[in-house]
């Protein structure tokens, strides 16, 4: 049984915050926070493994999908943070490109988005061939992975642009580039990739399940409460 004034409901690293004023504690509660749980921990591990994998002729790719509100973008940001940590810890670091797909993804818009992520223009794709300037940038920066959020927006393009965009994906993950792609999106993201059978075979598919009342949800809620500077436990995880 918890004694009066016990802070067992708060993770040890957060307990000092209980001494702050109400205004300061409320401000902390409003901050975004990351709460790990088994499903996302597994996905993060898979992406790190793919990122660290030796180059393959046809790159291994990963697609993470889920209903809106399931935390895909938060997971995307966490994966970016994971890769940044790997870059700092590794003696021979590999680069990556990270961006969100625009709501109207024409091929030219796609190229502009990647150019912005790289910080330099690499030209235009002609006849399905990615410019040599892009190949040189990939080699120079030792880029191994492309992170793409909102990949379901591929379906917003017309049929011609969809085919061009998917062909661009194939070119990224095929020799000589052989870049791994980690794509995030709603459940429609699966349809956007699966429409190209050759490309779909390169992707491992992972789905963020909808929450339901079970031990996984209770664990998540307990961990979330443990990150908040609450002087009294809410016991949200108890479902009362």
Description:
The protein contains 9 helices and 5 strands. It has 240 residues and is an alpha/beta fold. The protein folds into 2 domains: 12-33 and 213-238, no CATH class; 38-208, 3-Layer(aba) Sandwich (Rossmann fold), CATH 3.40.50. The protein has a 5-stranded parallel sheet, sandwiched between helices. Strand 3 (143-149), helix 6 (159-173) and strand 4 (180-185) form a beta-alpha-beta unit. The radius of gyration is 21 Å and the shape is elongated.
What is the secondary structure topology, with strand pairs?
Blueprint lengths: L21 H9 L7 H15 L8 E6 L5 H18 L5 E6 L6 H12 L13 H9 L2 E7 L9 H15 L6 E6 L2 H7 L2 H4 L2 E6 L6 H12 L14
Parallel strand pairs: 1-4, 1-5, 2-3, 3-4
Helix pairs in contact: 2-3
Distance between the termini: 18 Å
Spatial strand sequence of the major β-sheet: 2-3-4-1-5
CATH topology of the largest domain: Rossmann fold
The CATH architecture of the largest domain would be 3-Layer(aba) Sandwich
């Amino acid at each position: 049984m918890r004694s009066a004034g016990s802070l067992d409901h708060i993770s040890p690293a957060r307990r000092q915050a209980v001494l702050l004023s109400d205004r300061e504690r409320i401000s902390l509660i409003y901050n975004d926070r990351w709460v790990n749980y088994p499903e996302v921990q597994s996905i993060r591990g898979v992406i790190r493994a793919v990122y660290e994998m030796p180059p393959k002729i046809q790159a291994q790719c990963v697609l993470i999908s889920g209903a809106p509100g399931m935390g895909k973008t938060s997971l995307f940001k966490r994966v970016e943070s994971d890769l940044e940590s790997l870059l700092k810890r590794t003696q021979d670091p590999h680069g990556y490109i990270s961006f969100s797909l625009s709501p109207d993804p024409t091929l030219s818009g796609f190229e502009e988005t990647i150019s912005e992520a790289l910080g330099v223009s690499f030209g235009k794709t002609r006849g399905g061939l990615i410019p040599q300037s892009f190949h040189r940038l990939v080699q120079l920066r030792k880029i191994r992975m492309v992170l793409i959020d909102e990949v379901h927006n591929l379906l917003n393009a017309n049929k011609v642009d969809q085919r061009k965009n998917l062909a661009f994906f194939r070119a990224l993950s095929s020799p000589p580039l052989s870049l791994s792609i980690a794509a995030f999106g709603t459940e429609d993201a699966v349809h956007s990739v699966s429409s190209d059978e050759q490309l779909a075979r390169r992707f491992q598919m992972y789905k963020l399940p909808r929450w339901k009342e079970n031990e996984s949800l209770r664990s998540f809620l307990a961990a979330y409460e443990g990150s908040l500077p609450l002087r009294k436990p809410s016991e949200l995880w108890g479902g009362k």
